[in-house]
């Protein structure tokens, strides 16, 4: 029995069999002003905790804003476009990654933290939540306001919560509130060398 959400089934079809959570995960901008239970939030973070990382270094860190007061400390570094919709999200999370280990620069910190974000997003979907990652914010200001040490790279800001109706969005955003398609495998996977089609 299919578990695809209606708006997803209309916009996305997998070319090969996969778990439908991968299709149901997309990035809406409309959020309900409904609190995420602590246990649900911690389940999402628990999934991220188990991401793979080189040498088991686990460079990912999550700065979580759950209360109105905490979220308001994030608002000054978020650009105007993103603030216009993400202020309703009940949780904001700044994802950062540790760039150095006791052996020096840790070259895979961003790659490994991306794995953690992927598991975070999929578990959020399984828990009935929506996520939207953004890069439209002032990283220097975020670092200053939240006290992020220099040995950590700022990766993304994520809105987390329950999806709301697109009618709640400002004018100009409603028509964009649909799951986006993806490139076919033939355009992203090569065999043996770059550009050689996968057979």
From TrEMBL:
SUPFAM superfamilies: FMN-dependent nitroreductase-like. InterPro entries: Nitroreductase, Nitroreductase-like. The keyword Oxidoreductase applies. The keyword Oxidoreductase applies. GO terms for molecular function: oxidoreductase activity. It comes from the Bacteria. Residues 24-81 form the Nitroreductase domain. Keywords: Oxidoreductase. It holds the Pfam family Nitroreductase. Belongs to the nitroreductase family. This is Nitroreductase family protein. It comes from Cohnella xylanilytica. The lineage of its organism: Bacteria, Bacillati, Bacillota, Bacilli, Bacillales.
């Amino acid at each position: 029995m299919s578990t695809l959400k209606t708006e997803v089934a209309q916009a996305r079809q997998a070319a090969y069999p996969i778990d439908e959570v991968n299709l149901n995960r997309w990035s809406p901008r409309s959020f309900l002003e409904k609190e995420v239970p602590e246990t649900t939030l911690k389940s999402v973070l628990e999934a991220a905790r188990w991401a793979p990382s080189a040498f088991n270094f686990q460079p990912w860190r999550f700065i979580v804003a759950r209360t109105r007061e905490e979220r308001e400390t994030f608002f000054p570094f978020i650009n105007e476009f993103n603030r216009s919709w993400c202020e309703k999200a009940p949780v904001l999370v700044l994802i950062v990654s540790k760039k150095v280990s006791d052996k020096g620069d840790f070259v895979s910190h961003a790659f490994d933290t991306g794995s953690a974000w992927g598991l975070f997003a999929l578990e959020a979907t399984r828990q009935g939540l929506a996520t939207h990652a953004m890069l439209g914010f002032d990283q220097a200001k975020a670092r200053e306001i939240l006290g992020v040490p220099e040995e950590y790279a700022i990766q993304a800001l994520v809105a987390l919560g329950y999806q709301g109706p697109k009618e709640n969005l400002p004018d100009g955003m409603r028509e964009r509130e649909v799951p986006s398609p993806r490139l076919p495998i033939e355009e992203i996977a090569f065999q043996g060398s770059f550009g050689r089609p996968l057979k």
